[in-house]
Design brief:
Number of helices: 18
Structural class: mainly alpha
Helix content: over 70%
Shape: globular
Strand content: under 5%
Number of strands: 2
Radius of gyration: 24 Å
Strand order of the largest sheet: 1-2
Order of helices and strands: HHHHHHHHHHHHHHHHHHEE
Length: 517
């Protein structure tokens, strides 16, 4: 039930990233009479992504210092409440488009809270022996939410666009109730009660906000226009100040210790690259299916589920195997290669490609991504110390979200550069094929870069433990054989009680004479 609650929250926030895109034309038409244009309506999508990405690291740090559960549940509550308010805007015309955009920013903050805590919750509230399989389920939930979005959005918008937001309310309530009822466990925090680095948070917000805005609006404003260069300048200044500040902060928002571990850093970059290729393909595939293959919105939404089916087939399975064997590296490498193969198959599609080839291509690409993402995430969590789960979760998801935005911008730019347009003629499906092929070729290259980086990964040896392993001896000299995560010095006349809690953590505590167990 704990895993289901985490999966439900992840699915809900991922669903809203794509379900809204289908309703934008309808919303633009409804508010067009009030003087709003399509450019303004696009902010409904953009502000959500910008707020989500910009706040993840802040919420991960707050969760690490305070409580993962409180941040996660609060995020679901903010997300559901803002969804209800946005839906009501469809029936109160006086609120207008500005109110929707403002509430979408609030919704993005809630989504950031949920996203920041998703992986940390798995590490804290579920047994370590099931961590790989659990990561697989959460990865699948994120993919399924993204894939189901267009189809579900098309169905709900046919009745009224507000329903795409109202649907989040019951999902959010169920998720909150399950968290409150079933999440019982002990969280370990490295800096409980420490002050949050708000200066670092502000610098990260500026850096991420300008980056996401530049990547999304670059084609419209011009990549090297005055506005574009100004955004790059602001982003670079914020990044430089952030690096300087974090190195001097007593409790930095970005854990330099975590990023300093090369195997964690490589795992995070692999995930970022795969999200880059996947998000870019998610942007282009609906256009191919609609304008080249002439499928309706609901139909191509259902076709895209083949990608989630690939993740479903491989992600949890690979996670369970990794839990049992401790081997992750081989699956990251194989997954990156399989992902590249899937994009190669997608690059061969044209106007005559049949549905079976499309479905198989999507399945292969999804299987590769599911395999690599689950195993790379699982591997990175084996190299952190107790209490660092929230920080790693935040870093992982921030890099993934940034990769998604970069992937959309890069593949869209390549697609537009290679479209065959004859002045004065009507564009047909065949004119778009060169753009699709070159864009998917770039996705192949990104997957192969991930493969090269994955070759440098290394599985953690079973004998290694978080922290500094020591052998524990009782008063009688009995070697427990258990490497300890942490320990306190005890007096010679005390015995040690060593046990494993419900979450698979090894515990040790001194036992006074007369209370020996």
């Amino acid at each position: 039930m704990v895993l289901f609650a985490i999966v439900l929250g992840t699915f809900m926030t991922a669903l809203d990233a794509t379900i809204v895109s289908v309703a934008l034309p309808t919303i633009a038409k409804e508010f067009g009479e009030a003087g709003h244009d399509t450019a303004n309506v696009s902010w409904i999508l953009l502000i959500y992504t910008m707020m989500l990405c910009s706040c993840i690291l802040l919420w991960s740090k707050i969760g690490s210092n305070k409580s993962y559960k409180k941040v996660f549940v609060s995020g679901v509550g903010v997300f559901a409440a803002s969804s209800l308010a946005i839906g009501m805007c469809g029936f109160v015309e006086q609120l207008g488009l500005f109110a929707i955009i403002l509430l979408r920013a609030v919704q993005g903050i809630g989504a950031g809270m949920v996203t920041a805590m998703s992986l940390a919750m798995i590490s804290s509230y579920l047994p370590k022996s099931a961590m790989g399989a659990s990561i697989g389920m959460v990865t699948l939930a994120a993919s399924a939410g993204t894939a189901f979005g267009p189809a579900l959005g098309g169905i709900l918008t046919a009745f009224h666009w507000s329903l795409i937001f109202f649907i989040n309310v019951p999902i959010g309530l169920v998720c909150i109730l399950m968290c409150m009822r079933y999440m019982r466990g002990e969280e370990i925090h490295t800096a409980s009660g420490a002050k949050v680095d708000y200066v670092g948070a502000a610098l990260i917000f500026v850096m991420m906000f300008t980056l996401i805005f530049y990547l999304n609006k670059g084609p419209d404003m011009g990549w090297m226009s005055d506005a574009g260069i100004a955004l790059i300048f602001v982003m670079a200044i914020a990044a430089g100040l952030l690096t300087w500040w974090e190195r001097r902060s007593a409790d930095p928002l970005i854990s330099l210790e975590i990023l300093g571990e090369p195997r964690i850093r490589r795992s995070i970059i692999v995930g970022m690259l795969l999200f880059m290729a996947m998000a870019g393909s998610y942007l282009l595939l609906p256009y191919y299916l609609q304008f080249v293959q002439h499928y309706e919105t609901v139909e191509y939404g259902l076709i895209l589920i083949a990608n989630s089916a690939g993740m479903m087939a491989m992600g949890p399975v690979v996670g369970r195997i990794a839990d049992r064997t401790g081997q992750n590296r081989r699956f990251v490498i194989a997954g990156a290669l399989i992902c590249a193969l899937g994009f190669l198959m997608l690059s061969r599609m044209d106007v005559d490609t049949g549905l079976p080839w499309i479905l198989v291509s999507l399945f292969v690409m999804g299987a590769g991504i599911g395999m690599a993402l689950v195993s790379s995430t699982n591997l990175s969590f084996t190299y952190i110390s107790e209490g660092q789960d929230g920080q790693l979760s935040g870093l992982t998801n921030t890099f993934r979200q940034a990769g998604s935005s970069a992937g959309v911008a890069i593949l869209n730019a390549v697609f537009m550069a290679f479209i065959v347009i004859v002045p004065g003629s009507t564009i047909v499906g065949a004119d778009l094929i060169p753009g699709f092929r070159h864009a998917f070729f770039v996705a192949i290259l990104i997957s192969l870069i991930a493969f090269v980086i994955a070759m440098g990964l290394k599985d953690r040896e079973p004998s290694e433990a978080r922290g500094h392993p020591v052998d524990a001896f009782g008063e009688d000299g009995l070697d427990t054989g258990c490497p300890l995560l942490s320990y306190e010095p005890v007096q010679r006349e005390q015995r040690l009680r060593i046990w494993e809690d419900a979450h698979g953590r090894i515990r040790i505590e001194p036992v006074q004479r007369g209370n020996q167990r």
